[in-house]
Amino acid sequence: MSNNLRDATTRAFPNDGLCSLISAHTEMTNLKENYHQLTSDLVNVKRTLALVAALPKFFRERIMLQQAQEEVKRLLDTRAERFLELVRLQIYERPETPYLRLLKHAGCEFSDLENSINRHGLEDTLAKLAGEGVYLTSDEFKGKTEIPRGGMSFRASPKDFYRPNSSTGYTIQSSGTRNLPIGTFSSLEWLTLQAFGQALFYCAHNLFSCAHAVYEPILAGSMKFILTYAKLGIPTDKWFALNVGAHGLLEARYHYLNARLVAKMGRWFGPGIANPEYLEVGDFKPILEWIQEKKHNGQNSCIRTVVSNATRIARAALVAGISLEHVTFTVGGEPFTRSKKRLFEEAGARIALRYGPGGDSGTSLGCGNAKFIDEMHVPQSVVSFVENPRVLDYGGPPVHPLMVTTLHPAAPRFLFNVENGDYATMITRDCGCPLEKVGFTQHIHTVRSFEKMTSEGMNYSGSDLFALLEDTIPSEFGGGPEDYQLVEEEDDRGQTRLTLVVHPEVGDVNETKLLSRLQQGLAQGSRNHRFISKIWQDAGAFRIRRAIPHASARGKILPLHIKQKN
Ligand SMILES: [Zn+2]
What we know:
Number of helices: 18
Strand order of the largest sheet: 7-6-5-8-9-10-11-12-16-15-14-13
Bound molecules: zinc ion
């Protein structure tokens, strides 16, 4: 610190210079965060008004099944040329985009790309380019790390990938970088494009005749499911709003009013949308009563939620002796494993899986004749998935990350070979379900995360855990950097739990204190981390176990280990 600055600091904070400086810095950070929040709320209010104005027309132009089939076929037929046009306009005519730097570095001009796609097809071209360094890891995409390729290195910003002109839509939950929350703004046009595929998904799982309910926190993100139902002419019979998730009272009210407004529009101009009804965490009675009421009226029911919540509902039904034979859960957000499947089978429920690669970039849709536990169709009309085998920075066997490329200008962000931290097995097979028949021939299964924890349907970046588990916790509770490891695994009842594994050689530890320190540490950083940590905490997802942390093939112990089942 320079003398001038030290003097100024001492004058400004005469009692205890350093402490006051830290506290002032914290306050400034909070103020900055609140300011960003306020401005983003104002933007959201403006967007809500625009959304409400657009909804009558959106609801009126309902998608019929035959139209969905035709539109998907049309989108599939034109995907390569649409992608090329997108690349020409959004990459080769925008010299500042990080993608152009990567393509130029690989020596790929627009004509080369065009020739390769015409000759070898879109997927083979994308995979070849990835091998030449034209891809982004999720941390590179978020601007968290440098992008080193060959001799060059640079950094991108999330803003580099936004759609240049956004139309009417809604903001999906913030998933920001360390301090500044960033929401994904998604348009009604994009929702409509995806709804064509959803129509075939509902057909494949026989869901059009069901009574539909949604069990999600009230955030603008859950609006997507409700609006999709309405676009397909399906009423939302119940909107069970999980009572967690808002960052403050004001925000909670904002989301609630927003939801009420959309529900009202759905009743006036759409097929009907129930008002959100708050449920306390763990209170499944109203859901089970609704299921029974529908059954009594001779109607099957369908509940949209995340995998963990569906397992809780299934368990509550088993305890109460209620059969879920006429119930389908449309779930996503977490790995769907054999033990979870067993639980649903025991309860009698059926599952229609979904998998969103993040940032609302095209949801994969559960196969109607699945051969694998979590087999889904890639919505090739709007995205392309390609594998990119590579060894991670911190060692271990090679992983095959999924890379996502968006193929339509209406996508919230233009992704070109962007990893999302997940890997999956990709196959082509003729399953014969309505999704296959329309031309979604690419299937994925065994979708797992290699760098994110996905418990409770929320993603948390694994790289943020290094400091907490390798420095902070050992310094406060004893042991060293490889003595603590967070493990995502399933307990005996098929529930996803986050277990903090503590090496037996670390002496006596106050487990209550350690657990609370872990939760506090996980909540630090962005608002998103606080939010996710709160959801895990409410769900009782944390526990401690004394054991030797899992080591990778090369002996490296990572702060996060995702336990592989099946
Ligand atoms: Zn299928």
